[in-house]
Amino acid sequence: MGMATAAPSTSRLLYHxxxxxxxxxxxxxxxxxxxxxxxxxxxxxxxxxxxxxxLFPDRITPFSYxxxxxxxxxxxxxxxxxxxxxxxxAASLCYLGLQKLQxxxxxxxxxxxxxxxxxxxxxxxxxxxxxxxxxPSRLASLAGPAAIxxxxxxxxxxxxxxxxxxxxxxxxxxxQVAVAHNGNLVNYQALRSKLEARGSIFNTTSDTEVVLHLIxxxxxxxxxxxxxxxxxxxxGAYSLLFLTADKMFAVRDPHGFRxxxxxxxxxxxxxxxxxxxxxxxxxxxxxxxxxxxxxxxxDRRDMSVSSxxxxxxxxxxxxxxxxxxxxxxxxxxxxxxxxxxRTAFGRALAEESPALGADVxxxxxxxxxxxxxxxxxxxxxxxxxxxxxxxYSGRSFIQPTQAIRDLAVKLKLAPVHGVIRGKSVVVVxxxxxxxxxxxxxxxxxxxxxAREVHMRIASPPVVGSCLYGIDTPSDGELIxxxxxxxxxxxxxxSDSLAFxxxxxxxxxYGEEAGDYCDACFSRKYPVLPTLPExxxxxxxxx
Length: 542
What we know:
alpha+beta, disordered N terminus, globular, 19 helices
């Protein structure tokens, strides 16, 4: 079979092979490996064109994908936001909302609130939300009528560094301001270099700190104008919450890469959150999205809500991976029910790449559930929960040997032998990035007695790193960039493998398809990074 292109959008992306004809898998794997795509991505070209010793010698994005942890092969969402204004228990409501958004970031959490004296108070820490706020006195110290909260994985910033945990709180000549950010600024290094050249001093390695410096140095008045002035200089993905003594601001980038919604509680409190599931938990009614390019201001003194537009309208580019994997299925994201989108992906996958002769469809829990359900309904095959996920086993990379790490996989995913034994099994997952998890699942199912294992992926092959707030490996580490379809199938060891094609994904969205960013599948990046201009070197003063 000839080598397939890196991201074909018109083929069914299906390859089937009988297990007993595989032969020497190791030899065939080596034969199928490709060095790199013959058509390099815009990121790769920019990296090659950048000067030697540039800011990102290995990668154009400053993300840190943990290659030691083989227990989860999915991309990671980077941050979750919650803001509450107009409720005396605002910090406690933020705490609950952050718990619901824990899937969007597990490395650190924080809340900044406005006290009765108008002073902003901050509590941040490393770890899960429940760990950071396990001591009741920490939440008690945040009493007040307004608060913003943040959970994070790292994007532009060191992994597991306390100084990078948000919200950031700063003082400037007009008072205090706190900021929480979901996304990634592709011109961060260029902005930072300019600010440092003008005397700014940075305390963190997070791109979010740039926003505070831009606000502080802006000559616009009042604060709303300063925020607009600062955000107009940003490029990339950003959903932002700002908090001052008497106001809260919610901002979304003009392309609308990352979600941000607005809701209201019965007592009139206004709530902002990355997903509607956080609103549901704290009894807030979803009203609408914060529109791309919009700044919403809430004045807590009279609870008035006003809106401003950042820039002239630009094409919307919402992240399609929010529907594929990141958001919880009970959320409404980009005005669509997430579970309905995933069910539609599964139906389309079954229509495009059926598994003839299969006996049962099972999901890779938890994110593959609705896609598998859709595949089952379209194909008429029985749906079963053939894998059980155990959520309390910890991270497998801490185990001392590979053999023990392989055993640790069984803690996280346990096969239901009665569902699998002697069956031809269709396994549906939402995405395939490096192939490490898929290969373990296939091996697990074969050990449990599966007669055949057919892997179906409810999204196209991931061939491009994300620039806009998702932790993905570099282009060279993406398995669909290294191998063609048969090479990937051989690597994971399945009897057949199929991805949802990009054309089919677009057809599900219909006229809205152009409103979504699919750069990880197509390498069509709406906004490219801006590299810093060479700095003029000065001798250090005595």
